[in-house]
Each structure stands twice: as structure tokens, then as C-alpha cells.
Amino acid sequence: MAPLDRDFFRRDSRLVAPELLNKLLTRDGRGGRIVEVEAYAGSEDPGSHGYRGMTGRTVTMFGPPGFLYVYFIYGMHWCANVVCGEEGICSAVLIRALAPTDGIEEMRRARPAARRVRDLCSGPAKLCQALGITGVDDGSDVVTGDRGILLPEDGMPPPTEPGQTVRVGLSTGAEHPWRWVVPGDPNLSRPFEPPMPA
């Protein structure tokens, strides 16, 4: 496996997101292949935490590319985004689902409610729980792996025709088709339904 370099992330999140499909997200022997992502585009995207500018919560999103922005939702779950674009520009990709590849027994211990392997990382909060990613990991460098979290590749390319849909669970910005998936993968947070032909 080879870590992605900083320049890979130094682009708009909507360019980076589909290219992250089939890359890996790993932590200390646990990990999986990325099969679902969503792009967020800062000041032009009302669905983004950075839409109204930098806050204490979102400062990582405005920082250098290739770092994790980890945030808390619903008072109980952590989710992880990888920061994209130039420093000072809010652009990030939410990692929504992984196909588990390594450390599956350790992930099962972290997620005892998961009955099947496909349930271990089939959602952004689930994968953070499975990999032990929490708020202390906000600002982790996935290029250098300074805190044990890496986003490498192993030569498997992204799908030539990724599935593309609107994003999941948003009240604003829900119309943007900035969710990409590996079609047919059983680990998706929700099934991919191709648009009906016109």
C-alpha cells in the first residue's frame, strides 16, 4: 500500500470524492475499502458545516488538505471527513461506508451490535466506531499517518462508472448529486438506485 500524497487532496472535494472510491482507510491493523462518499463544498453548499464560515468546530475544514475533520452528531456519533482543496477554502469529503478488509474481529468487538460483516462499516458513524475514530482524532494527517490513521491505495482503481446520487439525510443542500458509491457493493449505507431513464 502507498499513501496518497498531499496534492491528491489539494483539489475540489467534488473531484476528489469519486476518486476516493476503492481507496483504503486504515487504523492500526483495522480498515476497509472506501465504497461510499459525499462531497461538501463550503461557502457554496448549505449542507456543509463550513457554509457560514469558520467556527471553533470547523477550523480543521479550513486547514491544509489531507487531514481528518471529525465531528459529533446526534449527541452520540462521530463522523470523519477528509479535508480537500487549498488551505483557507472549506472543502471536504465525508467517508460514508467501507467494505471491511482487515482487523474484522477487532471491529466486531468495537461494534458488538453488528450481526454481519457488512454491518460493521455501512455508515459514517459505524465506520468511525469500528475503527475507533473519535473527536481526539480531529486534525489527524492521513498522508503521514501521524496518529495511526492512513488513507492509502493498493492499485485498485475507482469504478469506471461510479453510482451518483443526491446526498443522504440533509435538510438543506439535499438537491446536489454529490454522493458517489461503488454500485452493487453490499456495504453501502443505503442501496444505490440508478436514476430511471428519461
Percent range for β-strand residues: 25-35%
CATH topology, what is it called?
3-methyladenine DNA Glycosylase, Chain A
Overall number of structural domains: 1
**Which homologous superfamily in CATH is the superfamily?**
Methylpurine-DNA glycosylase (MPG)
- What is the CATH architecture descriptor? Roll
Oligomer: single chain
Which sheet architecture does the biggest sheet show? Answer: 8 strands, antiparallel
Given the structure, what is the number of helices? Answer: 4
Which ranges are low-confidence, i.e. pLDDT below 50, for 5 or more consecutive residues? none
Radius of gyration: 15 Å
Q: Share of helix among residues?
A: 10-25%
Order of helices and strands: EHHEEEEEHHEEEE
Shape category:
globular
Distance between the first and last residues' Cα: 42 Å
Q: Briefly, what CATH class?
A: Alpha Beta
Structural classification: alpha+beta
Name the average pLDDT. Answer: 92
Number of strands: 10
